[in-house]
Amino acid sequence: MAASMRKMFSLRSILRNIPSRCGCKQITPRSSYCIEVENKKKIEVGSFLDELTEELDDDTGVENTEEPKSFATLFRNSAFVQLGELKDRKIVGRIMNIVGEDLYIDFGGKFYCVCSRPSFRAERYVQGQRVELVLHQFEMSSKFLGSPQHVTLLEADCTLLGLFDHEEPRANRLKEKSVDDETDLNEQVDTVGLSSKLMDTLHDNSVIDISKESVANVEKIDGDKS
Amino acid sequence: MPKLFRQVFNEFRRFGDTKGIHIIRQKIPSRSISTYGTLNQHAENKDVNSENSLIDPLEHHDYFDIRKTVTVKNLFLSTAHYGHVTGCRNPYMTPYLFGVRSGIDIIDLEQTVRHFQDALNFTAHIAYRNGIILFVSRNKMMMPHIEKTAKACGEYAHCRYWSNGIFTDMVSRLGQNVRLPDLAIFLNTQNSVFQTHKGVLDCAKMLIPTIGVVDTNCDPRLISYPIPANDDSFRSNMLYLSLFEAAIKKGKAKRAEDANM
Questions:
Q1: Right CATH number for B57-259 from 3.40.50.150, 3.90.245.10, 3.40.50.10490, 2.60.40.10?
Q2: Which of A33, A226, B7, B110 could disulfide-link A45, Cβ–Cβ 3.0 to 4.6 Å?
């Protein structure tokens, strides 16, 4: 059933995206979301990931003396809500895993989305690379006759648009990352530093990028412009 | 002789393993042991390091200082609030929901934090009493991490196919009677084909307390300590694992500390 459902979804997403892909550049010109990344606005391009990294980075840094925010406040201010309607939204994700020609991309939602590796500049699609996506469904699920509940594929449905960081030197990033890992290990405190420990485990599995990296990207964009 | 007896009794008072309690209970006036009957999670909040060294761990609200490790913010940042789409919802999960946003159920993390704290406290108490803790999940992505975590805190994991009767028909399965776990932690209460994990039912049959991370499509009814939260994301699962690991380690450290006292 899952196989047939996947086929159905992929066919549907292809058909649906023919018009949007053709007219994509007219709707949001390429420069517009670069500016949004610079200005840290997350309205048009949903970068759930950036938000998460920033927040986590804040946690590990200075001791936060503010009143803990309620869930309602956190949720209202999250990218998930600020994006509005999620369907057909352009978002940024990160390649978490590659199995054969399938890219498992984390965009900060509940599930990874699975896209096949494009033939154009295929060698650039490596683990940790940030990519642009169009989100169709947060979770691929559908009702089938005879079952009271939906059947879910535990996957998000997205279309891969292309790379997000175009000119990023890969080797430098890896070097920077390994240095950061070492410092984190030294700082790790067994009981209190739970969040730093979490960060370590996340670094090990390269789930969340280091926010320095994204800062570096912004600077790079700055430099290019000037 | 009474002195020796008192010493033995104090040992049980502190670490009383579940089997020993029952034997002692017949010999000791019920007044002195009555507090062991129930695990009161909301008892008075006292200072652990007060001069009263014979404070009953079960009477203390937060004996292991574990409740502060779980906050709304760190749950939120690890995307623990995402549920499934509304169509997948199990009606018994409705009380734990915050609402629905563009067709997706959102779990109320304020409730989750309370449930999580109770579950962690319970885990630490089991570890403190030398209980065996078993991590169970059928999430293939998380399997290596769960096994690694269980190994790191000296406990056990079962992330493979759950064959019927592994708890209930042990003699024919394993050839002899084996000690069952004292606590099963389900990081995912569904099996891979979207039914309730058979282990949940087996644990209920064998009176093994269970902690379960229940998503909006799960059935929380047979879980002793349900934690309503996202059980699919890698990021949130890693957080749960680190929290449980910390709880178990704290329980064991406290046991070693109190034994030396």
A1: 3.40.50.10490
A2: A33
